[in-house]
Design brief:
Length: about 725
């Protein structure tokens, strides 16, 4: 019972711990749970050894976490526990079952936003208490993380944002050489930034991974005595000893100094001590000789502690196992059960040198690829704050009839999919002439190979919604980072919509991609199409020529297809017409769904030299260029069938004028049938539900648009 899991096999480089071992990756989550269970058993044994432990005294509504003394000497601690010396444990106050734990994180930019998600996952996985995250974020991180948490809908988690850009003036006077830049100094001003009634907070770097319940760390606050206001782990490198190279001159520090990747802050006491004035005076004094910081806020924290050693409570080093090169981190643990917080505090991150790095990397990757939807766990017995979005969702779902054969289709319309906007770095300023056009599309993992080709054909901005699992999102990240074509483009917005449910939410994906464009116009395409070379510039000219800014027009880009996987792409309309005549190309879906594009009037297009207007007809689904304020796609249509048809019908109902562009074209590239079209063809109930949804959509159109919408019912009956 409670036997530790040894790390010793790593030292002999056993294949069991090799990065390539799929078996360990799959079982690591189970092992983490086993360790938690071992810890629980150990706590129970310690409690029984005391005869009548604090958990018994307080009843079932609370829980006690036994905490080791903050000496940093974990070996002597274990010896004490083995010897049955549990009196210290018995004296520790409990972390109440429903006590809220406050966590502060500074986060700026696209990459840091991804790191925060992995950190939060590791905290959520182990937690048993309500959490309140205080995120000091720039505008980019706030947009990403606000959407992410709003769509994640994790119970008993509250998020507050604080504008990092407003804090820049507080620390911009401090020169900093660290790669974290100005944001690496903002932990210094938390006493001023966070609410004045917040008494204590755990402060974390974004490159932290938790291997235990964060409540155990929160309980350490009860051990602070006297004037102790900072809980820190000793720095595990030799940096502050000043002997790393000739003329190496670090900032002053107490002994080895302290690492600020994990900080316990007693905010109320710090404010009374005039912390703001204390660190500023220290920084000003040291900067006169040091000129700049090398390790951002950490240098200043250490300089203050050097002058005022009574401020610090030294945490055991397993609360911040620092995985940078040449550290003493291996002295912080002997067994898996010793590990509590892992800190990837080297610029190399996962490529750092450490005897057990494969184990740590796999632990990190477990949370990186862990399905975040599984973390939407209720904390039973803890009242949650009323969430309007969650309550509305429950109300909408409760109104559905679960016995309805189309229940799953109807439910999908209300499903909230966790969404991570701008998964990769995005940087684009729209053209100042107000003619800019963004290509909008959606895809899943099986269409990833189209991205490079589209980027070569379309040089303008692109907005993509990708429907992926957490593990697939990491595969996509590796694919993108390994592609010179994709990495050279900063004007492509990649928005991850995480998988949930049995249908492909095609119209939700389109709406996500549409919503996050920064140009006045958008080209509503699909991922399987390659636009003609030069289409981006041609569309920008057409926008002006056809006065799209002041008229309700939908500009149609005629669609063609090839059945050949290797195609010599036509470089002009003349070349395309020649290939059409030779049978190398066809008008899109000519063989299987002529009605979808017949109104484009391809016969007229062959000789057209000027734009021409066409009328809406039943089942028309062209690819169009519209203003960004056009209607969204209807979310009731999922998977295959009627998802674009319904949108074009609504454009017509809103009196959009359909205009075909004479010198524009796009070509559909062949691919294996999608899972959804296969279901449509093989499943009779799928087809029945689609027909039902179509009829309901048409009825909704009639109610919304009145007499003018009757033509859609008539057209459907005649088709």
């Amino acid at each position: 019972d409670g036997k530790p899991v040894s790390l010793s096999p790593l030292e002999s480089h056993s294949p069991r711990y090799a990065a390539s071992s799929q078996r360990e990756r799959e079982s690591l989550e189970v092992r983490v749970r086993e360790v938690e269970e071992e810890n629980r058993v150990l706590r129970k044994q310690l409690s029984l050894a005391q005869g009548r432990g604090p958990a018994q005294r307080r009843g079932n509504h609370s829980r006690t976490y036994s905490m080791e003394e903050g000496t940093g000497d974990s070996e002597s601690l274990r010896a004490g526990i083995v010897a049955g010396n549990s009196s210290e444990c018995g004296q520790q106050p409990a972390v109440e079952k429903c006590e809220t734990i406050h966590v502060a994180i500074v986060c700026a930019g696209y990459n840091a936003s991804r790191d925060v998600v992995t950190l939060v996952k590791s905290v959520l996985f182990h937690r048993r208490n309500p959490l309140h995250f205080h995120l000091i974020a720039d505008a980019i991180a706030k947009q990403i993380l606000a959407t992410l948490f709003q769509t994640w809908m994790v119970p008993a988690v509250r998020i507050d944002f604080y504008d990092a850009d407003e804090l820049k003036s507080e620390v911009s006077w401090i020169p900093n050489k660290h790669y974290s830049g100005i944001y690496g100094l903002m932990k210094l001003v938390l006493t001023k930034t966070l609410p004045s009634n917040l008494e204590r907070v755990i402060v974390l770097d974004t490159d932290i991974t938790f291997a235990t319940d964060i409540a155990e760390l929160w309980a350490v606050f009860h051990k602070f005595k006297g004037q102790q206001v900072l809980g820190l782990v000793e720095n595990q490198s030799d940096w502050y000893l000043g002997n790393l190279w000739k003329n190496h001159r670090p900032w002053p520090a107490l002994g080895r100094g302290y690492n600020t990747g994990v900080i316990l802050l007693l905010l109320d006491k710090l404010r009374k001590m005039k912390w703001e004035q204390m660190w500023r005076l220290t920084a000003e004094r040291e900067l006169m000789s040091m000129l700049s910081t090398s390790l951002a806020d950490q240098d200043i924290f250490n300089a203050v502690i050097k002058q005022n050693p009574f401020l610090v409570y030294q945490l055991p080093c397993f609360w911040n196992v620092q995985l940078s090169d040449h550290t003493r981190s291996e002295q912080c643990y002997r067994d898996v059960s010793d590990l509590k917080v892992i800190h990837w505090n080297s610029p190399k991150k996962l490529r750092v040198k450490n005897k057990h790095v494969e184990f740590f990397r796999n632990l990190y990757l477990t949370f990186l690829e862990y399905d975040g939807n599984l973390l939407r766990r209720e904390l039973f017995g803890c009242p949650s704050e009323a969430d309007v979005n969650s309550e509305n969702l429950q109300k909408q779902l409760s109104e559905l009839d679960e016995d309805d054969l189309c229940y799953e289709f109807r439910r999908e319309r209300f499903t909230v999919h966790r969404t991570h906007l701008y998964f990769l770095h995005y940087e684009y300023e729209p053209a100042s002439d107000n003619t800019d056009v963004t290509l909008v599309a959606q895809l899943s993992m099986d269409r990833l190979q189209m991205l490079e080709a589209i980027c070569k054909h379309w040089e303008g901005p692109i907005s993509l919604a990708l429907y992926l699992s957490d593990a697939e999102a990491q595969q996509f990240l590796r694919y993108a980072q390994g592609s010179e074509v994709l990495m050279s483009r900063h004007n492509v917005g990649y928005h991850i919509v995480y998988k949930e449910g049995q249908f492909y939410p095609v119209n939700l994906l389109r709406n996500v991609a549409m919503k996050h464009i920064s140009t006045p116009y958008m080209f509503l395409s699909d991922i399987d199409f390659l636009p003609m070379y030069g289409l981006y510039e041609y569309l920008r000219k057409s926008v002006i020529q056809l006065d799209l800014a002041n008229t309700k027009k939908a500009l149609i880009v005629p669609a063609f297809e090839t059945l050949r996987y290797r195609l010599s792409f036509p470089k002009s309309k003349a070349e395309l017409l020649s290939m059409l005549d030779m049978g190398t190309l066809f008008t899109f879906r000519y063989h299987v769904w002529t009605k979808g594009h017949a109104p484009t009037n391809f016969a007229k297009w062959r000789t057209a030299t000027t734009p021409y207007r066409v009328e809406w007809e039943a089942d028309f689904e062209p690819y169009v260029v519209v203003r960004k304020d056009c209607p969204e796609y209807d979310r009731r249509f999922v998977g295959f069938g009627w998802n674009k048809v319904a949108h074009i019908m609504e454009l017509d109902a809103q009196e959009y004028e359909f205009t075909v562009l004479p010198n524009a074209y796009m070509i559909h590239m062949p691919h294996a049938p999608s899972f959804d079209i296969t279901k449509f063809r093989s499943n009779k109930q799928y087809r029945i539900c689609l027909k039902t949804l179509k009829e309901e959509f048409q009825q909704d159109m009639s109610r919304h648009y009145g007499f003018a919408a009757l033509k859609y019912l008539t057209a459907e009956n005649n088709s």
